[in-house]
């Protein structure tokens, strides 16, 4: 549930911040007549994201065992790629995001109402599709689907409340630190999803070494314990991972954390 909550909170807050920038720009520009078009675009983006998540679930359920394992492995790989790109893109572009969105919306206002709706749709749809894909990949292998669903709904609700508070200036949070810490946690989640993808490829017979275990933590990491459930659900930590799973997990996690946590270069001002 916590992993799903984190996904909903992080992705939901990004989408909420995008919406708040668009709404604030229209309000300050005294173009509130375009607000219905913005909400229409946002509603279409949300509907598309829900439909995409339903399509992934429906497709996986209709496949036989081997094809289902391959499908889940491929979607897990795609989720890792997208979430990694999103984390590093947000780290680099967060400071200029508001200015960029306002510029795009100003251009859309000059074109017409349809352009405004399309611009809002595209701004939110990316976050929504990423959320659906990442959520689908993160809950593979879960024994209960209700808890992850509750978790992501609570995360999205929390994001909406925080976003509304920021818009109304009732909440003050350090967004840089927020996105840094949630970025670290999402990298850990992504490493677990990548580990699960390797396991699925091994289950499908695409990769060898399914029974070549790197270690056995069964004596200290009981699957029935609360901490075993938390670690398995959050980071996909299993008592008997294969050698390939551990190697791929470490090969992704270590470089990703080093690159993400290294200080950003600050461009020196041009000489007069």
Layout: helices, strands, pairs:
Layout: H1 2-28, H2 35-61, H3 65-111, H4 113-138, H5 146-167, H6 175-203, H7 226-235, H8 243-261
Helix pairs in contact: 1-3, 1-4, 1-5, 1-6, 2-4, 3-4, 3-6, 6-8
Supply database-style keywords.
272 residues, mainly alpha, disordered C terminus
Give a brief outline of the structure.
This protein has one domain.
Tally of individual helices: 8
Task: State the end-to-end distance.
Answer: 54 Å
Shape: elongated
Task: Please outline the major beta sheet.
Answer: none
C-alpha Rg, in Å? Answer: 21 Å
Task: Report the β-strand fraction as a percent range.
Answer: under 5%
Per DSSP E runs of 2 or more residues, the count of β-strands stands at 0
Helix content: over 70%
Q: How many structural domains does the protein architecture include?
A: 1
Q: Which runs of at least 5 residues are low in confidence (pLDDT < 50)?
A: 268-272
Question: What quaternary form is this?
Answer: single chain
- Encode the helix/strand succession as letters: HHHHHHHH
Structural class: mainly alpha
The overall pLDDT, averaged over residues, is 81
